[in-house]
Write a structure and sequence with these properties.
alpha/beta; eight-stranded mixed beta sheet; 10 helices; 8 strands; about 240 residues; Rossmann fold
């Protein structure tokens, strides 16, 4: 297998769902689902998890919610999610084929729409279509919540290693677009930090390094790095 995909997320989703699953299931302090539940209590709610991948966020949300519906376009990712649910005998989740812009659910059928690091939210049109679809399926009084990497924090604390420049200069075009687009659609935001603990240098290289590139791999090995801090931004709106 190749050493790294050098930030090619499409290849990761399509060809390496097991590595994505291992990366997504890394121990986080605090976990994203716990943060969501703190600010937007999930007890008794039906939650839609858009772009659920291999189900890592779905299963964590299901610890708090009445039920969670994961929607994912990549069949290879859904297959992993379904297998995980079966292995763990988790009965309050289901997984459907669909996209952020075309959710296979009736109008006003969920209490909350959640999208955690959804890769398709990278320009104004995609964000507008996602929000339009989310507003269609969420019940009156429900919420739409997205969690993405905060501006200048792509790659977490190793961003400057990956890009070779100070963090304040690491602003990807789509990061600025997200804030502007969500703000224009009536969303508020708040940031939080989370520490990803990979447990070993080997696992950090196999997952984080495989995704983020050779510079990251070299730095992890040279510094025996097993924990990497990320900063996330929650955009949220009540309907």
């Amino acid at each position: 297998m190749i050493e790294t995909i050098e930030n090619d997320w499409d290849a990761l989703f399509r060809d390496y769902p097991e590595i994505y699953d291992e990366f997504a299931c890394v121990e986080m302090r605090p976990p994203i689902a716990k943060v969501i539940n703190t600010y937007f209590p999930l007890k008794g709610k039906v939650v839609l998890d858009v772009g659920c991948g291999t189900g890592a966020p779905t299963f964590r949300l299901a610890e708090y919610a009445r039920s969670v519906i994961g929607v994912e376009p990549e069949r290879s990712m859904r297959d992993v999610a379904v297998g995980r649910a079966r292995e763990r005998a988790i009965t309050n989740v289901e997984f459907l084929a669909g996209r952020a812009e075309a959710v296979p659910l009736p109008d006003h059928s969920v209490d909350m729409v959640v999208a955690i690091t959804l890769q398709s939210l990278h320009n104004e049109e995609n964000i507008r279509r996602f929000v339009q679809e989310a507003e269609r399926v969420v019940r009156p009084g429900g919420s739409i919540v997205t969690v993405n990497i905060a501006p200048t924090w792509y790659g977490g604390e190793l961003g400057p290693i990956i890009y070779g420049k100070p963090r304040r200069l690491i602003l990807l075009p789509d990061e600025e677009e997200k804030d502007k687009s969500f703000g224009g659609l009536g969303f508020s935001y708040r940031d939080f930090d989370s520490l990803h603990d990979y447990g070993s240098v080997e696992k950090a290289v196999r997952t984080y390094g495989f995704i983020f590139g050779k510079k990251a791999i070299d730095y992890i090995r040279e510094n025996e790095k097993t924990r990497i801090k990320f900063r996330y931004r929650i955009h949220y709106k009540s309907c």
